[in-house]
Design goal:
The structure is a homodimer of 231-residue chains.
Chain A: H1 5-40, E1 44-48, E2 55-56, E3 58-63, E4 69-74, E5 77-81, E6 86-91, H2 96-104, E7 106-111, H3 117-123, H4 133-137, E8 141-143, E9 150-152, E10 157-168, E11 173-185, H5 197-200, E12 203-206, E13 211-221, H6 222-227
Antiparallel strand pairs in A: 2-12, 3-4, 3-7, 5-6, 6-11, 7-10, 8-9, 10-11, 12-13
């Protein structure tokens, strides 16, 4: 007859470890719930009228009068319409890109992966008036066939936009661009043929701290999450 | 004289472990670089004119004619000006919130933490015409002192906005709101008194797949990243 002593010992250790882990996990959950309740009751502090929300990071491509391609980083951006599909980007008049878009009536939106964080930071801190940002970073401008603007070959998703209208808001002018096409590297597409955020790995910007943060884990699918409330 | 045998053994193990880790790390880096080069040379695939970029998730608060508070989720949003600080949100005319904002000339923007993912998904799938979304979720509307709109007490950051102007774009109408105040729970503020994204834990939306994704790890500070190029 075989001795089951060692096997029983191993199983006992696994069982004990599991029990301990569950106990700690429960303790953590309780702590979390306690913390959450405290947060829910918290009185809010006024921070004043400021634009300090986490926002996406886009790189805007444009040509100047002489046809020199330029790129700048903007975080005052967003999707603003589904039909026609439109985006909005807001720029200061002092930027080189402002004059370029006014002249060429077109721009590209280039979505960076986290591997391009330093290029994106640089594109937001230097001016196309002083330097050729493509030469400086070694990235490649590609002339769009659809609009009068260049896009960045190496970025995983690029959007070609035709300027629809501008709107003066104060420190910034809003440009509304109609999306003429979205082009993406096949390597960042999911099984459904759409960009897969886990492969794209975009990042967000926290104004104020000037920090970039990566995209994190999957949190859930909207219809399934909504069902948890609407049951 | 003391015996250093055990100490030397421990140091040897640490050294060996470090060397192995470095070797694996280098191997990983090489693999990553190889992959990256392949990606850089990739030909882009056209996905057509679509609004399929990862975007932030905001919950818009408003009152209807009778003063019933309502909330809806929107991802066609963004910051659009620094002075005055303004946000833009785009809504379909069919939404209950559309009529509310037209009537009250005000709205709130409520930034959710990931712990509110199911409420946020629900707010985007039900209509305030049919249900009271506050009652359904147990969240608490707070009347703003500054604008004619409610905000969500339990959400970590809320922004009170006065409607500045609207713009017809097609399927969506753009609302531009001036930020009158940002209010935040102290528990999500960093040492600099500004929202700390690691404490706030906002999430992003991937249109198309309808997935929510968490905010991930710190990627870097913009000036420091830019210096790596601009040296």
């Amino acid at each position: 007859m075989k001795s089951y002593g060692p096997l029983i010992s191993i199983l006992a250790v696994i069982f004990l470890a599991g029990t301990c882990a569950a106990m700690f996990s429960e303790k953590d959950n309780k702590a979390e719930t306690g913390k959450q309740s405290k947060v829910l009751d918290e009185i809010k502090k006024s921070l004043g009228a400021r634009s300090i929300l986490p926002v996406p990071v886009w790189v805007i491509g444009s040509y100047d009068k002489e046809g020199k391609p330029n790129v700048m980083t903007s975080a005052w951006v967003g999707i603003c319409c589904s039909k026609p599909p439109c985006v909005t980007i807001s720029l200061r008049k002092a930027t080189y890109t402002f004059g370029n878009i006014m002249e060429r009536k077109a721009f590209s939106v280039n979505i960076p992966s986290e591997s391009f964080a330093k290029e994106v930071a640089y594109f937001g801190s230097a001016s196309g008036r002083d330097v050729n940002k493509f030469s400086k970073t070694g990235l490649t401008p590609v002339k769009s066939d659809l609009v009068d603007a260049p896009y960045i070959k190496e970025f995983p998703i690029v959007i070609e936009c035709k300027l629809l209208q501008t709107l003066e808001l104060g420190s910034h002018t809003m440009f509304i661009g109609e999306i003429m096409d979205v082009k993406a590297n096949k390597s960042i597409l999911g099984g459904d043929g759409l960009p897969d955020i886990k492969k794209l790995r975009p990042f967000v910007y926290a104004p104020g701290s000037s920090n970039f943060y990566k995209t994190g884990k999957y949190l859930g699918k909207v219809p399934a999450l909504a069902k948890k409330i609407n049951k």
